[in-house]
Recover the amino acids of this structure.
């Protein structure tokens, strides 16, 4: 596949010169949802699906960007002296944002680049295609210009680009998973301190199955920001009675003791999710380490319940998928994954139940919703880097 991309690169940008190839993965979060901007824990893993970049140096100060996926936009020319976000710039605002975030930190690009991009993460699926593009740009720039930054810095730079150049107020989880992923491991990340450990995901008789609802409801961004604001307000209310910096600092018991200081029922439900989901993530990692996969699955189911009723970031199509999955024999756990309002579910399914899962849920979903779902039986891959 990479060879084909290199061929397309030469057809698009002209023959000659040395090209380099890079890759940054998408992610799936196993548990710990909507906790990363609440100082809680997350437990994502990098996928083997992701975004590829083929790169060649230029002598001038132009970035020439082309996406195989968005061929209709063609090659986009960007001067390094005019890095601003525009609506016409479409997908190129992501790499441009990363250039902007590097330059802001004093890392200057001394020449231009030709860059071809190709991604195999399904569009709009909530598996972090934009974060992978940001992290990919980060590794390209680090390698090309010798910038002295760590992979964690690259994640933070990607998040800065997303928050302050592209205007989406996301947490650190997606970029961190793409930059720091490790084959066959999930990352147990404390988003308050950025301390992390890897936990092997050994599933001798089960698979991780992602189901794409193929819907993405338009309120994603505004509702995401509403949730953030509700949690911030709830935190302030709690801080009047308890000494905490984030909702992630609270145990369930402490929350129950002080919850009445949150003067609104909706905010109380949001904060409850943030606190309980953080504890669920911590407990799930312990269960996994103890090889108690059944317990892990129950925590995934409880996570969905909380995201559905307390945090209210699910939607009808996703609930149909999760209800079908949780009712099937051989399904250890199933929940929505990512930002919500559509996108994907993640399920742990016994090997001998995977075929029936895909067949039966596929059929029932089509009947109930009117369009097909997609299923990906996934492997956990490594984080971003240069390919040989
Ligand atoms: C999106 C954001 C992440 C995280 C998840 C919810 O994917 O980009 O930072 O908040 O939603 O867990």
């Amino acid at each position: 596949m990479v060879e084909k991309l290199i061929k397309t690169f030469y057809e698009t940008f002209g023959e000659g010169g040395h090209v380099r190839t890079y890759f940054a993965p998408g992610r799936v979060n196993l548990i710990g949802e909507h906790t990363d901007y609440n100082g809680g824990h997350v437990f994502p893993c990098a996928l083997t699906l992701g975004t590829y970049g083929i790169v060649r140096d230029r002598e001038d100060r132009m970035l020439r960007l082309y996406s195989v996926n968005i061929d209709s936009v063609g090659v986009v020319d960007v001067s390094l002296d005019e890095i601003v976000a525009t609506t016409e710039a479409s997908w190129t605002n992501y790499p441009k944002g990363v250039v902007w975030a590097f330059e802001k930190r004093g890392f200057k690009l001394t020449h231009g680049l030709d860059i071809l991009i190709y991604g195999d993460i399904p569009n709009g699926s909530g598996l972090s295609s934009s974060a992978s593009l940001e992290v990919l740009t980060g590794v390209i720039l680090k390698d090309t210009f010798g910038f002295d930054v760590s992979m964690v810095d690259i994640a933070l730079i990607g998040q800065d680009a997303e928050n302050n150049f592209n205007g989406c107020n996301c947490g650190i989880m997606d970029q961190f998973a793409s930059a720091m992923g490790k084959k066959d491991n999930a990352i147990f990340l404390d988003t308050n301190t950025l301390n992390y450990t890897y936990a092997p995901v050994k599933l001798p008789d089960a698979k991780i199955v992602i189901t794409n609802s193929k819907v993405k409801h338009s309120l994603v961004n505004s509702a995401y920001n509403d949730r953030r604001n509700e949690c911030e307000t709830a935190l302030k209310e709690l801080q009047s009675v308890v000494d905490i910096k984030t909702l992630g600092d609270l145990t369930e018991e402490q929350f129950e003791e002080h919850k009445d200081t949150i003067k609104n029922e909706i905010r109380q439900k949001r904060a409850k999710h943030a606190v309980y989901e953080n504890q669920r993530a911590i407990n799930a990692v312990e269960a996994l380490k103890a090889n108690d996969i059944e317990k892990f699955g129950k925590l995934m189911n409880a996570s969905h319940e909380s995201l559905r009723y307390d945090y209210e970031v699910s939607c009808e199509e996703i609930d149909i998928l999760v209800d079908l999955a949780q009712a099937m024999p051989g399904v250890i756990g199933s929940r929505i994954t990512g930002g919500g309002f559509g996108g994907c579910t993640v399920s742990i399914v016994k090997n001998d139940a995977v075929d029936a899962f895909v067949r039966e849920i596929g059929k029932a979903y089509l009947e109930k919703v009117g369009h097909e779902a997609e299923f990906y039986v996934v492997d956990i891959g490594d984080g971003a880097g240069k390919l040989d």
Notes: The first strand starts at residue 20 and ends at 29. Residues 29, 33-34, 36-37, 170-171, 173-174, 338-339 surround alpha-D-galactopyranose (CB under 6 Å).
